């Protein structure tokens, strides 16, 4: 048995159905022009959906935030985990086709609780 399976890390990933992957999907979401900002996180809101598929989510941290990929990836992991917990609680609305969460430099050095609070505020605004 893998070490990660024992601690449940593999099962705690954001499911593939919820991930925004294609460049065209990112571009379409950015084009809608709807945004919300809170505590260093900006969310771009896609079109309202008409089908039963789950809302797809993307997480973006620019190189302008920090030049080291380790720092950028940590911010993305924190945002992803926070969103996964919100899905698990049922707090996320399936009203939109896609959402893109973009981090700013304010998130550098923050822990999961602080990122989770910011994500909750944004998701409840949706």
Task: Please specify the SSE layout and strand pairing.
Elements: H1 3-7, H2 23-32, E1 34-38, E2 41-45, E3 56-60, H3 69-89, E4 98-103, H4 112-125
Parallel strand pairs: 3-4
Antiparallel strand pairs: 1-2, 2-4
Helix pairs in contact: 3-4
Structure, briefly:
Helix content is 40%, strand content 17%. It contains four helices and four strands. The protein has a four-stranded mixed sheet.
Structure keywords:
126 residues; alpha+beta; Ribosomal Protein S5, domain 2; 4-stranded mixed β-sheet; 4 helices; 4 strands; globular; disordered N terminus
Please tell me about this protein's structure.
With about 130 residues, the protein is α+β, with helices and mostly antiparallel strands. The chain has one domain: Ribosomal Protein S5, domain 2, CATH 3.30.230. It is built from four helices and four strands, in the order ααβββαβα. It has helices at about 5, 25-30, 70-90, 110-125, and strands spanning about 35-40, 40-45, 55-60, 100-105. The chain has a four-stranded mixed sheet. A hairpin with a 2-residue loop joins strand 1 and strand 2 (about 40-45). Helix 3 (about 70-90) crosses helix 4 (about 110-125). The longest helix is centred in the middle third of the chain and has 21 residues, at about 70-90. Mean pLDDT is about 85; it is low at about 1-10.
Shape: globular
For the CA atoms, what is the radius of gyration? 15 Å
Number of strands: 4
Structural class: alpha+beta
Mean pLDDT figure: 84
User: What proportion strand?
Assistant: 15-25%
Strand order of the largest sheet: 1-2-4-3
User: What top-tier CATH class fits best?
Assistant: Alpha Beta
Low-confidence stretches: 1-10
């Amino acid at each position: 048995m893998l070490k990660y399976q024992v601690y449940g890390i593999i099962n705690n990933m954001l499911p593939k159905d919820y991930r925004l992957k294609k460049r065209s999907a990112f571009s379409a979401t950015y084009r809608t022009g709807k945004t919300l900002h809170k505590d260093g996180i900006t969310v771009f809101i896609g079109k309202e959906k008409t089908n039963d598929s789950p809302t797809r989510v993307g997480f973006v941290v620019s190189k302008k935030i920090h030049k080291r990929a380790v720092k950028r990836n940590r911010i993305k992991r924190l945002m992803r985990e926070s969103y996964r917990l919100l899905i698990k609680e049922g707090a996320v609305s399936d009203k939109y086709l896609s959402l893109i969460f973009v981090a700013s430099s304010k998130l550098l050095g923050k822990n999961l609780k602080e990122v989770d609070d910011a994500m909750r505020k944004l998701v409840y605004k949706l």
